[in-house]
Amino acid sequence: MEVSCLRYIFLPLPSLKENIMSESLNLIIDDASAQMKKTIVHLESELTKIRAGKANPVMLDGISVEYYGAATPLAQVANITVADARTLSIQPWEKSMLSAIEKAILASNIGLTPQNDGNIIRLFLPPLTEERRKELVKRVNTEGENTKISVRNIRRDAIEQIKKEQKDGLSEDVAKDGEGRVQGITDKFIALVDQHCKDKEKEIMTI
Question: Looking only at Cα atoms, what is the longest distance across the chain?
Answer without folding.
Answer: 93
